[in-house]
Write a structure and sequence with these properties.
This protein has one domain: SH3 type barrels. The longest helix has 6 residues, at 39-44. The chain has a 5-stranded antiparallel β-sheet with strand order 4-3-2-1-5. A hairpin with a 4-residue loop joins strand 1 and strand 2 (26-34). It has helices at 5-8, 39-44, and strands at 12-21, 26-34, 49-54, 61-65, 69-74. With 90 residues, the protein is mostly beta strands.
């Protein structure tokens, strides 16, 4: 018996990431993972593409090919792209 789509949804958590692609382009956005999964689990699953919700707009989704990812870094909210706080030098 088929369940309605709403009952099939799993609880997920959004993690902020920076993705470096083979051509040098960089994407910053959110990847949604099931609560019991790590980023490594997503990268090692058989799917060839990852949906990435743009950090500046919850309505824009970029589909990224895993084949062309050079690196992916989990970021913390409120920190700049490379995980370092902005420091004012005086």
């Amino acid at each position: 018996m088929n369940q309605p789509i709403n009952n099939q949804r799993k609880d997920t958590r959004a993690i902020l990431v920076s993705v470096l692609m083979h051509d040098g382009s960089r994407y910053r956005g959110y990847i949604h993972l099931p609560d019991n999964h790590r980023l490594q689990d997503l990268l090692n699953d058989p799917r060839g593409f990852i949906p990435l919700e743009q950090a500046n707009s919850s309505e824009e989704i970029t589909i990224v090919s895993k084949r062309y990812i050079v690196s992916i870094e989990e970021l913390r909210e409120g920190l700049n792209e490379f995980g370092l706080k902005d420091i004012a030098l005086t």
